[in-house]
TrEMBL record:
Protein name: AMP-binding protein
InterPro entries, A to Z: AMP-bd_C_sf, ANL_N_sf, ATP-dep_AMP-bd_enzyme
Family annotation (Gene3D superfamilies): 3.30.300.30, N-terminal domain of ligase-like
One function term, GO molecular function aspect: acid-thiol ligase activity
Amino acid sequence: MTWACFSREVTDLIAPTPAATMSLYREIEERLQAKHPAPLILTHARLPEHIRLPDVIIETSGSTQGRPELVGLSWKALRSSAEATWDYLQEPGQWWLRLPINKIAGFQVLVRSAIAGIPPSLTPAGSSYTAVVPTQVRRDPDILRSMKAVLVGGAPSPGLPDNIPFIRTYGMTETCGGCVYDGVPLSGTQVRIDDGKILLAGPMLMEGYLGSQSPFIEDGNTRWLETGDIGTLDQGRLTVLGRADDIIISGGINIVPSLVKSVILQKFPDLEVEVMGVPDPEWGEAVCAVVVGHHGGEEIVLTLEGHMRPRIVVHLPQMPLLSNGKIDKAALRHAVDEQIRAGRAWRR
């Protein structure tokens, strides 16, 4: 029988209740052991007709393209990803669930727990591991310090507090979650850079998108996923610089937003910062820093030099977030455009 999440159940999956969490956890346990498991559908979106359903259907967050993709995953890929995480951590323990279980980061907490045979917890007491997005870190840093490891992903994460055992993860729904930890590919994961763009291969890859073309390229017997991210690979260690389509071209110079953000946060770790390009009649695009905090525009701008120095600073009361804690980029751009049109942005 197909286990489906319909609209009436979505609230429980976004803010997991004990009942919803354990119900899904038990379903995962059973399907990991079954020879022919029924499909597990974690979306209330309309599915394409007349297709073979994969083992698991889960939505991307839609934080980059503005619309979610329906991703088909196999239990083989999910197991491979979870076992690679355990290989990296080297010690079993209980997971503290902090993320929506209808998205890949929270869902994989349940898969890892099921493989270890240790049910997850909704409280930190007795837990060894957790997974968060950067926006959650400021809420309870003292609790996080008690963990053996804190997986943090979902966005570039400069300026994280000290004395917390962070593991910076890189991955996506299409790779069953994180597949590169602290720049090092997990077992089975292959990484290559093609014209500055990150490509991934390995047993953790999705089967494909449902209803749209999948970003795969075939090279011999290897299937590579085109991630849409840019980065560098130095002696096997990956540095992720951000989305290729987020690059700001100002006066003919390519500017990487994550590098600008990193410099600002090194100087002002108490700020929340996002960096984007906005249309400019003279420069093509102008670097815009969007901040939540009390430091003035001139103070922020003076931390950077040359072409990395923002021409516009927009202050917001809070960052718009999706249900999984990631920045809602479409809502953020709308808020920035409104502030600029209203003349409330700082300019140099």
